[in-house]
Amino acid sequence: QVQLVETGGGLVQAGGSLRLSCAASGRTSSINTMAWFRQAPGKEREFVAGIIWNGDRTYYADSVKDRFTISRDNAKNTGYLQMNSLKPEDTAVYYCAGDRNYWRRSAYDYDFWGQGTQVTVSS
Predict the structure, then answer these.
(1) Distance between CA 11 and CA 29 in Å, rounded?
(2) Any idea what DSSP says for residue 101?
(3) Are 30 and 112 in contact (CB under 8 A)?
(4) What SS3 class is residue 4?
(5) How many Å apart are CA 118 and CA 4, to the nearest integer?
(6) Residues 20/77/73/104 CA torsion (nearest 10 deg)
(7) Distances in Å between the alpha carbon of 102 and those of 14, 69, 108?
């Protein structure tokens, strides 16, 4: 199976930056897309950004375009989410997820999940 371990969450003031990491282990060849989702209290889990692992192609939610950047390090089997110009509305638990398929944005479609890491943006 696949295991995903997230790090990098924390408290940051509005306008600041954080970088999240997602280390994949196990049967990592099962992951064709790595993505980030987030979930705020009382809200549905929403797509943030995705990367096609081998093709190094990325896609984003409109709400984070031009602020967040998703990337990966193949040698380390690790994905990253660089978050800049953070807003209080970005406050949520952020989850790393893996998908056997491509280009999908629904949390229901993803096969593998990390434990989540809290990101809090103060005003």
Answers:
(1) 33
(2) S
(3) yes
(4) strand
(5) 15
(6) -70
(7) 32, 18, 14
Residues in the chain, pLDDT under 70: none
Residues ≥6 apart with Cβ < 8 Å to 104: 33, 35, 50, 110
CB 4 within 8 A of CB 110: no
Which strand ranges, in their side-by-side order, compose the sheet holding 18-26?
A: 2-7, 18-26, 78-83, 68-73
| pLDDT at site 5 | 97
Strands (E), 27-67: 33-39, 46-52, 57-60
pLDDT of residue 38: 98
CA distance 49 to 85: 16
14: nearest Cα among 88, 119, 89, 91 = 88
Residue that is written with structure tokens 């638990």 in the block: 93
